């Protein structure tokens, strides 16, 4: 008996609109895979958060602290990027799976230009940070350094983007960083008057935690 | 869900809240009548008294090393003065404290509320016993200069009086000079038996700059020199009392129960006191708990004064005669005098002891005092629990109904409500509720504008302006747009002009233009110009700077109204404006019946916006311009957010308007503290004191932005791309469910927080005001305003 082709069930999200056709996208999407790997858990984020909190975080010294740790972050991100990018699996048209390669010899310009791009992104991120409620007239330098941290937290994503092209999976990483930063704001009203509440530490720390979770578990999602 | 379910839920919710409040704010039982002597067999030590209150004079301002009151300290050292640290019962606000100082009873929280409602007569002490009334009954002459709270407490008791208002906090010198200028002739003539002076300057400095303000030391020196001036003119039979009614905390505010706020200074000054040989070793090193010398209850002052002047002790007094003064009398007189205090306690407790020994009397009094002061703030836990249970029931029902309406999406609503509820347990979250709403708002905007980045950025920008308008919290206080506009009146007036004209144009484009373009123009023009002119004359009357371009308009208006100064024109203008609004409203409703359906809600919303603008302070008016942009954008986004079911779309718009209501409430400069209630626009168009009218205007001016968004959601929902009018009751039900789920769950958590934290340090400063605000939001916003929305929708 010939198998009858059952019409594919579509989920309607709207009462009066025809269902949005999503089939066309499928070919474009999902030609890369980022598997979960212990190698790509960014333990250095924890290290940097620890280092930030261990150093002087009293009012007035936050800025220097964050600048010092920014250099640490950039350096460690460079190393981590190799781990992260080489973990990505590209699926070729013939359904072959192969790992993306990244070598200093060939990709030095990509790595350096991604640093520059991260720096360029600081400004739009700064604007976003202000739009999401950071002080505008005061704490300019603090906000700038916060944006730089946020920008370099997404550095592996920028490199991967240029290496493999635009993939929707990368937005998930960015979303984790953003949600992390957003969550940190809940600590602002607390009247505990601890040093770690100095602006912008709660946001910096929570975005590290957010991106730690993001880089660790997006492979599982 | 039937309509009577809704009604039942609403009634249950309001009733639960009211029952809780009855238990939380128990009204105090006050004994009627006046105290009388038991035997009175003792001699007066003094026959005159100078009672000098320095508002917020904390103990360390007198006794510590940092104090500049050197003369008082020298008196304390040589024994002509006796100093104490007086514990003032919270709420540490002037009105309840003055009640405590004069009657000797502990106040209840409602007094703190009445401190705000200036022209309230229920707070008067005319029929309550106090040492002031006892003096009056003994035919003594009382003169009073200073804070007019005294006049409110004791109407027509003082023989000579000059009151100063206490709500203009920015004035440090004038308030005090108003008192001091009477001193010279009062001290030379001495035609009084009791002279009350109440200095406010020190408190104002605290509110403005905190206890370490650079003005603090000069002010203390000024007070010190006044003490010196008075003391040098007094004979030995006149007692002088110098005291603070309460203290202040580290940032100079008061109202709560921290050590700084409750530790007031208290000094008795007279040369006769040298007999007591108390040579205090002042100045003393600063300490954290503000305890210097002997610590007494502030209400102990009352029987002490009564005994020193030989007056009957006031009926409701809970104070105990300060022991240090007893050696002034002979041993048998001491016993007689303590029996007076004992009898006063026996009356209150309703038991007879017949104690004959001074030490035993003291033991008895001290034991009873703590019990009696506590019973004055006893919570009725049964009622509180009963209220909580009612609220829990109604929130469970609402949750169930909400789930049936929006299914899985209800998880968003639940988590928002519960998250909000949990923050009610943190005193700092209550104080900084603004931040919580901002936190919700940013998340929700991203969610609502998913996939529409340009709308997202635009709404974020606008709402960031709203957030930056004012700052009510204590954290990261930065520059605000409010401040900027205060410093740049020209830009402010330009924006006000723009705002009013935009609303005028919007009104001009409504249904009136379909009916008659000329009439439409006339209506919009007249409303706009009246509103603008009123605002102009209002600031002129308040002595604010106005741009010179507008002087002509002000002059023309005053000339045509035939008045000399701006103040006189305000009432006429305000009434004219309100009559006009009323007429336009009637006209619009009339057109409705002639089936001009076009822009029904938008027209009414524009008209309402005029009223709200009218009732808003000048710097906040341009907020409404920003709101118009947000409203437009929300309309665009919600009209196009396909991929969502209709009921979900409605509920998201409602939720967003709810978030905006709260966010914009705080952006007006409001907070969960009674200190930010704004009364400046409560008297527009009112000549006498009319409690209903003032109440309505106070509500409108303090809740203007929440009202805007409450009605605004109607025009967003009904006058958008999609025609929702045929299912208007469905829409209304969804909208109501969303807001009610928030109010019931939020209120339930607030009540549980108030119950669980009822012995918390901040219960009077943070949680009780929050409860009052919750009451206002429930009754007025979720009750009254929603009913009005319902009526309008029925008309539609």
UniProtKB/TrEMBL annotation, chain A:
Localization, UniProt: Endoplasmic reticulum membrane
Keywords: Endoplasmic reticulum, GPI-anchor biosynthesis, Membrane, Transmembrane, Transmembrane helix
Segments of this protein annotated with the region Disordered: 1-20
Membrane topology annotation: Multi-pass membrane protein
UniProt name for this protein: Glycosylphosphatidylinositol anchor biosynthesis protein 11
Domain of life: Eukaryota
Pathway it works in: Glycolipid biosynthesis; glycosylphosphatidylinositol-anchor biosynthesis
Recorded family membership: Belongs to the PIGF family.
UniProt GO BP: GPI anchor biosynthetic process
TM spans (from-to): 70-89, 110-132, 144-162, 169-188, 200-220
InterPro entries associated with the record: GPI_biosynthesis_protein_Pig-F
Entry keyword Amino-acid biosynthesis: no
An annotated GO cellular component: endoplasmic reticulum membrane
Classification via Pfam families: PIG-F (PF06699)
Biased composition (Polar residues): 1-15
Main location: endoplasmic reticulum
From TrEMBL, chain B:
Origin organism lineage: Eukaryota, Fungi, Dikarya, Ascomycota, Saccharomycotina
Topology class, membrane: Multi-pass membrane protein
Coiled coil spans: 328-358
One GO term (biological process): GPI anchor biosynthetic process
Organism in which the protein naturally occurs: Wickerhamomyces ciferrii (strain ATCC 14091 / BCRC 22168 / CBS 111 / JCM 3599 / NBRC 0793 / NRRL Y-1031 F-60-10)
Subcellular location: Endoplasmic reticulum membrane
InterPro entries noted in UniProt: Alkaline_phosphatase_core_sf, Phosphodiest/P_Trfase, PIG-G_N, PIGG/GPI7, PIGG/GPI7_C
Domain GPI ethanolamine phosphate transferase 2 C-terminal intervals: 376-789
GO terms for cellular component: endoplasmic reticulum membrane
Family: Belongs to the PIGG/PIGN/PIGO family. PIGG subfamily.
Keywords: Coiled coil, Endoplasmic reticulum, Glycoprotein, GPI-anchor biosynthesis, Membrane, Transferase, Transmembrane, Transmembrane helix
GO molecular function: CP2 mannose-ethanolamine phosphotransferase activity
Function text: Ethanolamine phosphate transferase involved in glycosylphosphatidylinositol-anchor biosynthesis. Transfers ethanolamine phosphate to the GPI second mannose.
Primary location group: endoplasmic reticulum
UniProt xrefs under CDD domains: GPI_EPT_2 (cd16024)
Domain of life assignment: Eukaryota
Transmembrane regions: 384-404, 411-430, 436-461, 490-506, 518-538, 576-595, 607-630, 650-669, 689-716, 736-759, 771-795
Protein name: GPI ethanolamine phosphate transferase 2
């Amino acid at each position: 008996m010939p198998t009858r082709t059952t019409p594919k069930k579509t989920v309607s999200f709207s009462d009066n609109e025809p269902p949005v056709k999503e089939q066309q996208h499928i070919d474009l999407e999902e030609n890369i895979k980022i598997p979960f790997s212990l190698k790509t858990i960014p333990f250095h984020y924890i290290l940097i958060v620890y280092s930030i909190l261990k150093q002087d975080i009293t009012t007035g010294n936050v800025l220097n602290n964050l600048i010092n740790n920014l250099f640490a972050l950039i350096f460690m991100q460079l190393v981590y990027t190799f781990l992260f990018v080489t973990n990505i699996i590209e699926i070729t048209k013939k359904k072959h799976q192969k790992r993306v390669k990244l070598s200093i010899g060939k990709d030095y310009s990509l790595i350096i230009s991604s640093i520059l791009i991260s720096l360029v992104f600081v400004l739009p991120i700064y604007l976003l940070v202000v739009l999401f409620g950071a002080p505008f007239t005061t704490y300019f330098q603090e906000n700038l350094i916060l944006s730089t941290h946020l920008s370099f937290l997404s550095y592996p994503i920028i490199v991967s983007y240029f290496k493999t092209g635009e993939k929707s999976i990368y937005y998930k990483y960015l979303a984790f960083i953003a949600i992390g930063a957003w969550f940190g704001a809940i600590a602002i009203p607390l009247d505990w008057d601890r040093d770690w509440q100095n602006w912008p530490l709660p946001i910096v720390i929570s975005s590290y935690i957010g991106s730690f979770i993001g880089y660790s578990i997006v492979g599982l999602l | 869900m039937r309509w009577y379910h809704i009604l039942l839920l609403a009634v249950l919710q309001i009733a639960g809240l009211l029952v809780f409040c009855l238990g939380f704010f128990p009204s105090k039982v006050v004994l009627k009548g006046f105290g009388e002597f038991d035997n009175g067999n003792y001699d007066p030590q003094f026959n005159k008294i100078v009672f000098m209150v320095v508002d917020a004079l904390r103990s360390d301002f007198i006794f510590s090393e940092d104090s500049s009151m050197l003369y008082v300290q020298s008196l304390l050292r040589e024994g002509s003065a006796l100093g104490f640290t007086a514990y003032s019962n919270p709420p540490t606000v002037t009105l309840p404290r003055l009640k405590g100082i004069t009657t000797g009873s502990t106040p209840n929280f409602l007094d703190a509320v009445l401190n705000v409602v200036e022209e309230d007569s229920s707070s008067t002490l005319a029929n309550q016993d106090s040492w002031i009334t006892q003096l009056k009954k003994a035919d003594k002459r009382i003169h009073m200069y200073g804070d007019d709270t005294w006049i409110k407490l004791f109407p027509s008791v003082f023989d000579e009086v000059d009151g100063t208002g206490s709500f203009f906090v920015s004035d440090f010198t004038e308030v005090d000079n108003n008192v001091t200028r009477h001193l010279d002739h009062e001290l030379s003539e001495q035609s009084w038996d009791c002279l009350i002076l109440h200095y406010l300057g020190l408190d104002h400095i605290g509110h403005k700059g905190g206890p370490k303000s650079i003005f603090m030391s000069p002010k203390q020196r000024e007070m010190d020199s006044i003490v010196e001036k008075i003391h040098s003119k007094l004979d030995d039979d006149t007692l002088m009392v110098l005291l603070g009614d309460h203290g202040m905390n580290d940032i100079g505010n008061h109202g709560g129960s921290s050590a700084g706020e409750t530790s007031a200074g208290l000094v008795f000054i007279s040369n006769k006191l040298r007999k007591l040989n108390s040579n205090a070793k002042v100045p003393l090193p600063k300490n954290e708990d503000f305890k210097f010398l002997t610590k007494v209850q502030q209400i102990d002052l009352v029987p002490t004064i009564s005994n020193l002047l030989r007056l009957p002790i006031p009926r409701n007094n809970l104070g105990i005669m300060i022991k240090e003064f007893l050696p002034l009398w002979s041993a048998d007189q001491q016993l007689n005098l303590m029996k007076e205090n004992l009898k006063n306690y026996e009356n209150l407790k309703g038991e007879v002891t017949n104690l004959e020994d001074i030490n035993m009397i003291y033991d008895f009094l001290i034991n009873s005092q703590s019990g009696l002061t506590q019973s004055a703030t006893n919570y009725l836990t049964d009622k509180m629990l009963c209220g909580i249970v009612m609220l829990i029931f109604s929130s469970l029902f609402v949750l169930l109904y909400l789930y049936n309406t929006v299914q899985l999406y209800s998880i968003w609503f639940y988590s928002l409500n519960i998250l909000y509820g949990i923050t009610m347990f943190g005193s700092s979250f209550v104080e900084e509720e603004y931040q919580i709403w901002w936190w919700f708002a940013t998340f929700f905007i991203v969610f609502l504008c998913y996939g529409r980045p340009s709308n997202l950025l635009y709404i974020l920008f606008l709402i960031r302006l709203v957030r930056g308008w004012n700052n009510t919290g204590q954290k990261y206080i930065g520059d605000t747009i409010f401040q900027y506009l205060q410093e740049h009146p020209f830009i402010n007036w330009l924006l006000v002009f723009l705002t009013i004209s935009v609303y005028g144009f919007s009104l001009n484009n409504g249904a009136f233009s379909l009916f008659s373009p000329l009439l439409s123009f006339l209506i919009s023009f007249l409303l706009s110009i009246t509103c603008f002119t009123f605002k102009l004359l209002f600031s002129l009357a308040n002595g604010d700077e106005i741009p010179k371009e507008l002087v002509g308009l002000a002059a023309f208006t005053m000339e045509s109204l035939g008045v000399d100064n701006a103040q006189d024109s305000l009432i006429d203008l305000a009434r004219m404006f309100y009559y006009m609004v009323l007429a336009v409203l009637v006209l619009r409703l009339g057109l409705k019946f002639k089936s001009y359906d076009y822009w029904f809600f938008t027209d009414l919303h524009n008209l309402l916006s005029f009223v709200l603008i009218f009732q808003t302070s000048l710097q906040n008016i341009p907020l409404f311009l920003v709101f118009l942009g947000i409203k437009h954008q929300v309309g665009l986004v919600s009209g196009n957010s396909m991929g969502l079911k209709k009921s979900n779309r409605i509920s998201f718009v409602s939720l967003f308007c709810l978030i905006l209501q709260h966010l914009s409430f705080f952006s007006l400069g409001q907070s969960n503290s009674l200190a930010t209630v704004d009364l400046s626009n409560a008297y527009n168009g009112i000549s006498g004191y009319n409690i209903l009218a003032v109440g309505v205007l106070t509500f409108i001016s303090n809740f203007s932005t929440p009202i805007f968004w409450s009605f605004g959601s109607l025009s967003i929902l009904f006058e958008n791309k999609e025609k929702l009018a045929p299912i208007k009751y469905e829409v209304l039900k969804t909208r109501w469910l969303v807001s009610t789920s928030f109010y019931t769950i939020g209120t339930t958590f607030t009540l549980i927080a108030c119950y669980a934290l009822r012995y918390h340090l901040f219960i009077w400063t943070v949680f009780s005001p929050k409860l009052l605000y919750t009451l206002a939001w429930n009754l007025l916003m979720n009750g009254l305003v929603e009913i009005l929305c319902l009526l309008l929708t029925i008309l539609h």
